[in-house]
């Protein structure tokens, strides 16, 4: 266990200091709300390597590009798809032809018109292997051809019906960019993509900041906008501050106005009355943070052993104590923000006695000197690689508690904290029995990516999404059917069935929603989009109201 | 004149030889480490987790020569280092030379300032210890010894966090973060880097100072009525400084690696942060570029330190030129 212990301790000190820093400066400055000014945002997410979210396609790119790129459709917090750059759409009976009507008179900030041809260029850009798109590429995979019917109408022909198409198109990774911008080539477009958003990329100074200036001609208001016309802020300075304690200190000293990825202690301090800090809790959509058990090899190829692990893990007390009440235990494979999420506590109830019985039944009846159960001379070992880039200190401590709880019934859990690359390496080499991997995607179709047997085959890069290695033809059929069903009610039923089967498989131990918190001090009107919960500053003003 | 040149050559050549060796070993370790930990393709194809199609994978494999035998790739990398042609970053798609150029100056700036500050702090502490008299002197010396020890073991991330808490949040004297080179923003990162080095330096100087203090020339100077301060600066410090100068070369190397922590903590640009980010996505050209530059810097500082030793103590040159003539 303990390669991470000294680090956790160090982090603990750092976050305590961060929280102290916040509490020491709790008195808010009271100033008039007004337009204009520069808002400073400090992110703890990784700095993008390219500002065009078509390239690659990860959360940090979504976070930043929300300020300058906009998608065809939006999504409200209750899951309803709304018009955005597209004002209307129609689907054919067979679900294979989709017609989109574009908003009239919209131009990108370089003056290029947003027309059917531009949409075609964007989808083709996502599908071109040269673009190196991963997230966006998967989202538009089923679009076989794109036709510009006339300037304001674009038609997609699909290779198979795709009920997740609108959800996919609402994501920042498929947002629309100026064709002229794309034509500049990847190197230049990565530096400053051109969109229709409320802000325009002015300059990217790597490792320091991206400066964004207001788009004075902004007119394509998404679901969160509360007024016509341009944003109130003149500029946004988007800074990269990797250390959580430093971000908290910078917020409290007024150097920055908004931070993301705060530590639980910092959130608790901010939540106190009179802190002058607004806390926005905006969990990410798609899957929850969870532990998946590799059912593709021993010992977890036996459902009894998987159930035993889940009955023994007992994560709830750890979640409560480590996250200080800033998040709740989940008992669903989907995020609480997904309207189709199904919760079922029964599958995840803690019961160490049942766990022991299940292990006995599965033949793990003997124990060695360390108290680890054995069977035919083999130890009941669970290799658990932990990505230190994706799991924060609190989560790593939670894994250590689960390790201890599982040890009580005879599991030997080997936690191995490694960097992201080695972590993918371990998964690709099948050197794991348990793993925790985040996955953000709008809508329940994320279940198909994570649990369809197609997801067991690694991509050329070695990545595969079905870490549980679930191979259930019946589940595959349900997921395929749900993906092809445009009837919302029927679709929800199918996803409920799929979730039931996934929970029954005991390959998934849900922990909590993917954490996504923002702290705001000295600004108002900061909201998040109902898609991947990225912040938008269209309504933001400096000063406390 | 000729002997001076010969002496300089004798001083520089072995160090240049070791420089080549250092860079070669570093390059080899980097090559093996990055290869053993996985495929650089994923960095090229949009980072870990990218699901690039077979076409894109094939194209990248050929474009970056990853289909060549390993030994050829290794030789190609050595050649790039020898010619200082580091190519383009896999992740950022920018020339590595540009990234190095952007990040070299901020790191050298804080490392150099930190080394100077460390010397100033160490010398000030020693002077205080040397001149304080009587019972108070004993207290001062004991206190300084304690500070020395604490300073040399305090972890930098902790020190930095405390400095932020006190001087940025509490007193509001300095900004928390430190972009660019605004003088106020430099203070906290430089102090964070300097304090542990100052502790080491003071510790090393302490011992040699005591030795010099008991030497006949110090007694002679005192007997002629020189003040303690004069004895310190004119006589004993110069003697005692030698191990400190030698230590400075090493200290500079540790400052460059300490930059990783400080640059992350104070959100500064620099080689340390560049290296950290590049390594986490296995961006081979950037890692190789940064590591080579740091190795070269380290060697350059070692040479500089050796030259300085000769300036501080000319006997060394004579001793090396004709071994056994002059004892220490």
From TrEMBL, chain A:
One of its GO terms (cellular component) is ATP-binding cassette (ABC) transporter complex. InterPro entries: Peptide/Ni-bd, SBP_5, SBP_5_dom. SUPFAM superfamilies: Periplasmic binding protein-like II. It comes from the Bacteria. GO terms for molecular function: peptide transmembrane transporter activity. Residues 1-26 form the signal peptide. Pfam families: SBP_bac_5. Its main location: other. The keyword Signal applies. Residues 80-449 form the Solute-binding protein family domain. It is found in: Cell envelope. One of its GO terms (biological process) is peptide transport. Belongs to the bacterial solute-binding protein 5 family. This is ABC transporter substrate-binding protein.
